[in-house]
Structure prediction request, 386 residues.
Amino acid sequence: MTRWKPDAQGRLMKAAIELFAERGYDATTVTEIAERAGLTKRTFFRYFADKREVLFSGAEQLAEVWLRGVGDAPADAEPLAIVTAGFEPLAGIFEERFEFARLRAQIIAANPELVERELIKLQGLAGELERALLARVVSLNAAILAAQTGMTVFHVAFARWVEQDDPTSFGRLLAQSLEELREVVAAIPRPAV
Amino acid sequence: MTRWKPDAQGRLMKAAIELFAERGYDATTVTEIAERAGLTKRTFFRYFADKREVLFSGAEQLAEVWLRGVGDAPADAEPLAIVTAGFEPLAGIFEERFEFARLRAQIIAANPELVERELIKLQGLAGELERALLARVVSLNAAILAAQTGMTVFHVAFARWVEQDDPTSFGRLLAQSLEELREVVAAIPRPAV
Prediction:
């Protein structure tokens, strides 16, 4: 189910997430992470600025994959369709990291400081999605609404995915959450004109 | 256009926001705020825990008014209609505070620490909206999607409101943003079943 990369970085991530889960995030030191991974502190700092970055270094790849999907969307696609065009490649990379994602979600939920950091990172990514939409000459409001809404759908699907046991379900949960959003929005009465 | 309350709390808020705008948030002290308001530091601390709280003490009232609107929504209303039922009373209280809201938005945008705090507060409010929806036996996913989507619409309308000059336009901007969201979501192709 889990596929930890056997390289130094993968070993450090595995060691860190295990220690965070066992002892708590605050109580774990970089020295202990390196020790558990059978590596030196110096090697740790070659890959991560601090222990928090073990949890957030994946954010750049998330952004990169999502934005690449956005870039590959057809030129005439609607704003929200452009945003959700990144979902399929995203599902692929997340499925490979199910165990890490699940433990990571638990560790973050237990630490308000990490929740803040996560919100800021996701908000930053929503901003990048907005800029990618604006570059396609989408209106500013449509860009913000589509980027934020796409982020909400991603967030909901992600929370559902880490609470169940099938690593391969992420793509399906993304599609389901998008469909539920459509229903939630379609159900409000049209305004009187 | 501005209606600062003439009481001590209102005078402190006015003094604080003016000083933040003139000198920057970091460079302003509680002593200076109290002095500008013609009051003592002791009086300041009767109303606010610190200078940051001058900017965020309104969040409780925002939550209270929004949740009261949610509580007053018809029993059979759809989830997103329940969330947006709070918009009308919200527009009323914000219009009275246009000048404060506008300066506040600029001060927050210029300080990453305040942006974080704002995101956390809004995320907390989205959580309260979710719980209010769940109490009405809405499904968990619909509750999260409706609460987050309602928050996005609020956020977009708010950003537009503080960038123009008509204090009375907030209600109209909320309705417009909701309609734009509807268009953005309706425009995505239905999934192949």
User: Anything to note?
Assistant: The mean pLDDT of chain B is 90. The radius of gyration of chain B is 19 Å. The CA atoms of residues 149 and 155 of chain B lie 10 Å apart.
